[in-house]
Amino acid sequence: MSQASKEFAVELRDLVKQYQDPNGEPVLAVDHISLTILDDEFFSLLGPSGCGKTTTLRMIAGLDIPTSGEIILYGQDVTMQPAYRRPVNTVFQRYALFPHMSVRDNVAFGLRMRRIPKSEIDGRVDAMLKLVRLDRQGDRRPGQLSGGQQQRVALARALVNEPEVLLLDEPLGALDLKLRQAMQEELKRIQREVGITFIYVTHDQEEALTMSDRIAVMNEGVVLQVDKPYDLYEEPKTRFVADFIGETNFLHGVVLDNDDELTHVRLDTGQMAHVVNEGKQFPLEIKVALAIRPEKIFVGTGAPPEVRNVFGGVVKNIVYFGTDTYYDVELPGQVMVTARQQNEDYTGTAARVALGDEVYVAWRAHNASLLTE
Description:
By secondary structure, this protein is of the alpha+beta class. Helix content is 23%, strand content 36%. It is built from eight helices and 20 strands. The protein has helices at 53-61, 103-113, 118-131, 147-159, 177-194, 205-211, 229-234, 239-244, and strands spanning 8-20, 26-38, 42-46, 68-73, 76-77, 88-92, 165-169, 197-202, 214-219, 222-227, 249-258, 262-267, 272-276, 287-292, 298-300, 309-320, 324-331, 335-342, 358-363, 368-372. The protein has a six-stranded mixed beta sheet, with helices on both faces. The chain has a five-stranded antiparallel beta sheet with strand order 13-12-11-14-20. The protein has a five-stranded antiparallel beta sheet with strand order 15-19-16-17-18, with no helix packed on it. The protein is elongated and about 75 Å long. Residues 1-5 have low confidence and may be disordered.
C-alpha cells in the first residue's frame, strides 16, 4: 500500500511523448507536462479525445516509454522500468475478464501467478469481494454479471495486488448513464476505503467534478490548469477551461479601466461590464472575454437591486428541463446569452417570462471571470 511518509505519489517532470504519423511526420502527443499527484489523492486527467491524457496514463503505467522527461513514483525514478516492476495496476474501459473463470478465480489470478500461498489468497480475495460488494457472486462467471458488476470485478482484481497507485482509463465508458452515476459513488467510496492514490482518465467533466480531489485539464498535449473541482468551475484560467468545464457565456470587449476592486470592460456592444479583479490590474485596451455561467445570470422583467451588471434584452428561446428553465436572451448588437434559473424561486425576485418578452439580465461583478483573449 502507499507510503504515507512521502508527500507525492507521482511526479511527472517535463514529460514528452512524440509519435510519428503514417506519413512519418512527428506528432507531439504530450508536450512538456509537469505534475505532482499527492499520496492517497483521487486525481483526474480531464480533456477531449486526443488531448494526451491516456498517453500520459500509459507512460505512468509503463506501457509507453517517454520521449523525454522523468516519472517518479514515491521518490523512485521508474521512467525506464518495465510495467511489471512498477507498483501500479491499471483498469481499462474493457475489463478483459476471463470468461471461463469464476469471479473469485478472476480476482485471484494475479496472486496465483505470483505464487502467493493459498491461505493468503483466499483471505485477500474475500476481503476484495466484500469491498466491492460482490461477496455473494464469487462463484458466478463474468457473463452472468451486469456491466457494473463486471467493472467491480476488474477493480477487485487490480486492487487485490495491493498497488501503491491505481490507474483507471475511462473505466465507466461502457456503462449507461444511471449505472455510470452509481459507479461514480462506488469508485469514490472504494478509493477512500483502500486509501491509495487513484489516477483517473476521463473526457466526462461530470465524472471528474463528482469524484476528484483535484483535476488536471488537458488539451493538445498540454496541462492548462490543475485545481480542485470548485476552483476549476468558479475560477477558470483560460477560455478552453471555462468552455470545457460546464456551460459558459462569453462576452467580448476591451479593458477600459481598473480600480482597487473592479476592472471595467467596454463590451463590443458598447456597453460597460464590471468584474471583481482581486487586486489584479489588467493592461488598458487589452482584448478580454467575460465568462459567466448560466446559473449566475438573473432574468426578469424588473432589474434586481444592487447589481452592477444589468442589461436589457429580448427572450428568444425558452427550454424547460423540469428542475430548471434555460432562457436565451438577445442583448443589443445581436449578442446572445443563456441564463439558467431554478423553477422554484424562493427569493421571489424572478418573474416568469415568456417568449418575446423584454427583460433584464444581470449578474454580480464577482460572478464573472475575466480571461485574456
